[in-house]
Amino acid sequence: MKIINLVSPILGTNCYLIIFNTKAIIIDPSVEYDLILKNLDDCKLEGIFLTHGHADHFSFLEDIYKHEKVNLYMHENAKEKLINSYKNGSELFNYPLTFNDLEKVIEVDDNQIIEIDGCLIKVITTPGHTNCSVCYLIENHLFSGDTLFYRTVGRTDLYS
After folding, report:
1. Who contacts 36 (Cβ-Cβ below 8 Å, separation ≥6)?
2. Domain boundaries, the chain
3. 126 with 144: CB under 8 angstroms?
4. What are the tens digits of pLDDT across the range 109-146?
5. Burial category of 120 from C-beta neighbours within 10 Å (exposed 0-12, middle 13-18, buried 19 and up)
6. Sequence-distant (≥ 6) Cβ neighbours of residue 143 within 8 angstroms
7. Would you say 28 and 19 are in contact if contact means Cβ atoms under 8 Å apart?
8. Can you tell me the distance from the alpha carbon of 126 to that of 58, in angstroms, rounded to the nearest whole number?
9. How many C-beta atoms lie closer than 10 Å to residue 2's C-beta?
10. Integer Cα distance of 27 and 18 in angstroms
11. 2-153 architecture in CATH?
12. Whether 47 contacts 25, CB under 8 Å
């Protein structure tokens, strides 16, 4: 497994490209598709995983979906945030952003195991930052979105 950390120009949000054997996933699509494509090599993009429904964590989802219409994994409560710019926080920055193509959404829940290309991804629900926050545990790597920040915990004072 190879982990590539790509940092978004919008609020410095982390986007992760996880490359398994021949397939890859994105966690929090907050960078442009061209940057993803440049790092994919010959791997096939298999899915996109959201840690929660705030706009800075899906800011380039539409851009990526134009090219790669793959399964979109998220907590059930994240859907209402994707389609509503007030609930996803983008209105606060005068940059209303929504994503309405929910046809390929796969809802995830606590302790669910998802298998991609022989690798197991465990879902851990972590409500607090939002009511749709989840972490993804892949081998011994935890992808926590805004549940954890560098040397501190995530914010819990925002609209959930």
Report:
1. 6, 17, 26, 29, 45, 64
2. 2-153
3. yes
4. 999 999 999 999 999 999 988 999 999 999 999 999 87
5. exposed
6. 16, 27, 28, 49, 51, 135, 136, 137
7. no
8. 18
9. 11
10. 8
11. 4-Layer Sandwich (3.60)
12. yes
